[in-house]
From TrEMBL:
<keyword id="KW-0067">ATP-binding</keyword>
<keyword id="KW-0813">Transport</keyword>
<dbReference type="InterPro" id="IPR027417">
    <property type="entry name" value="P-loop_NTPase"/>
</dbReference>
<dbReference type="InterPro" id="IPR012340">
    <property type="entry name" value="NA-bd_OB-fold"/>
</dbReference>
<dbReference type="GO" id="GO:0005524">
    <property type="term" value="F:ATP binding"/>
</dbReference>
<dbReference type="InterPro" id="IPR015855">
    <property type="entry name" value="ABC_transpr_MalK-like"/>
</dbReference>
<dbReference type="InterPro" id="IPR040582">
    <property type="entry name" value="OB_MalK-like"/>
</dbReference>
<dbReference type="Pfam" id="PF17912">
    <property type="entry name" value="OB_MalK"/>
</dbReference>
<dbReference type="InterPro" id="IPR017871">
    <property type="entry name" value="ABC_transporter-like_CS"/>
</dbReference>
<dbReference type="InterPro" id="IPR008995">
    <property type="entry name" value="Mo/tungstate-bd_C_term_dom"/>
</dbReference>
<dbReference type="InterPro" id="IPR003439">
    <property type="entry name" value="ABC_transporter-like_ATP-bd"/>
</dbReference>
<dbReference type="Pfam" id="PF00005">
    <property type="entry name" value="ABC_tran"/>
</dbReference>
<dbReference type="InterPro" id="IPR047641">
    <property type="entry name" value="ABC_transpr_MalK/UgpC-like"/>
</dbReference>
<keyword id="KW-0547">Nucleotide-binding</keyword>
<dbReference type="InterPro" id="IPR003593">
    <property type="entry name" value="AAA+_ATPase"/>
</dbReference>
<feature type="domain" description="ABC transporter">
    <location>
        <begin position="4"/>
        <end position="235"/>
    </location>
</feature>
<protein>
    <submittedName>
        <fullName>Sn-glycerol-3-phosphate ABC transporter ATP-binding protein UgpC</fullName>
    </submittedName>
</protein>
Length: 364
């Protein structure tokens, strides 16, 4: 069993900077957990503390049933794959993969067996005699993974392992890592700042910001029920639109007043807003670009098309309403011209409401 538990984990660097501010996280056995967040939010620091490469300032870290705060990296039964692969340049692929096992005094025949098996899984059997500089980026990436696999770790730690690859290879390696996780049946903790990687690969996502955890949930939940404005804005591209407004009750109906325009709430949301005491309060309304409907004519707000971006199957439509820019995501077969008047409306079942002060979701 290799669940990983972080209890009130804090990291203060020697210069006094607090990179991780007391986080709690439970990564289940065999889970594919993603740590995602903007640059500098503490992802690498957190992963390095799990690996034992960074001292834990405060809190308790366990792998399985064992508290590992004072356990050396080599005794933690983990393997880490770094962004720059960190292969030994003067060694062949085979020797790179064998290195850790030799240190552990694994018998030669077993080393050979394990390397052959890992090489087969990763499709690098033909590369075993080459040196790292004779490999492409994607091949080096596979060797780095292979070196981790042969050690049969209980936990795989990966820090942005795909960020040096071109876009096409990244998509391919993403699928391969998902498959690898299924095959190995091992706990993965994977760091990225790429929200697409987070959404597609993880069984759960842990969104971090400024040394704190913002939300931990399955990708679908993170997307459909973001816990706060930060998560709502960070996950999803193009970004969610945000508007300041107020919730009021009119003729028995709950509406959001945004710059003098009234937007009806779905009945579930209306009930929740009332129960939680938000009638008459300032809020932030959020709507995802794909939940804005654009029509040539209709009952919605009248605005003009400013910019359109065609992205294969999607069309991003930018428009301004009362001095604020919005973005809507439509089907690419929608035909729109620059400056054309359009009618836009929001899907009332898909609206998000946040407390203006705490920035937390009112609905979930
Ligand atoms: N040795 C150090 N001493 C002082 N501060 C550090 C040290 N290492 C990292 N930091 C700071 O701690 C914060 C978190 O760094 P960390 O590397 O964990 O971020 P990250 O989330 O991995 O970012 P990125 O996406 O850019 O890799 C940053 O503000 C960074 O500048
Ligand atoms: Mg990092």
């Amino acid at each position: 069993m290799a669940n990983v538990t972080l209890k009130s984990i804090r990291k203060t660097y020697e210069n006094g900077f607090q990179a991780v501010k007391g986080i709690d996280l439970e990564v289940a056995d065999k889970e594919f957990m993603i740590l995602v967040g903007p640059s500098g939010c503490g992802k690498t620091t957190t992963l390095r503390m799990v690996a034992g490469l960074e001292e834990i300032t405060e809190g308790e870290m366990s792998i399985g049933d064992r508290i590992v705060n004072d356990v050396a990296p080599k005794d933690r039964n983990i393997a880490m794959v770094f962004q720059n692969y960190a292969l030994y340049p003067h060694m062949t692929v085979y020797d790179n993969m064998a290195f850790g096992l030799k240190l552990q005094k694994t018998p030669k025949t077993e080393i050979k067996e394990r390397i052959e098996k890992a090489a087969k899984i990763l499709g690098i059997e033909a590369l075993l005699d080459r040196k790292p500089k004779q490999l492409s980026g994607g091949q080096r990436q596979r060797v780095a993974l292979g070196r981790a696999i042969v050690r049969k770790p209980e936990v795989f730690l990966m820090d942005e392992p795909l960020s040096n690859l071109d876009a096409k290879l990244r998509v391919q390696m993403r699928a391969e890592l998902i498959k690898l996780h299924k095959d190995l049946q091992t706990t993965f903790i994977y760091v990225t700042h790429d929200q697409t990687e987070a959404m597609t690969m993880g069984t759960r996502i842990c969104v971090m910001n400024e040394g704190n955890i913002q939300q931990v949930a399955e990708p679908k939940t993170i997307y459909n029920h973001p816990a706060n404005i930060f998560v709502a804005g960070f996950i999803g591209a193009p970004q969610m639109n945000f508007m300041d407004g107020k919730l009021v009750e009119k003729d028995g109906k709950v509406v959001a007043e945004i710059d003098g325009t009234e937007i009806d709430l779905a009945s579930d949301a209306a009930k929740m807003v009332k129960t939680n005491g938000y009638i008459g309060k300032d809020i932030v309304l959020g709507v995802r670009p794909e939940d804005i409907k654009v029509e040539a004519s209709g009952k919605g707000l009248k605005v003009r098309v400013e910019v359109t971006e065609l992205l294969g199957s999607d069309l991003n439509v930018y428009f301004t309403y009362k001095g604020k820019q919005y973005i809507a995501k439509e089907d690419s077969n929608v035909d729109l011209e620059f400056n054309q008047e359009i009618s836009v409306s929001f899907d009332s079942n898909k609206l998000h409401f946040f407390d203006k002060e705490t920035e937390k979701s009112i609905l979930y």
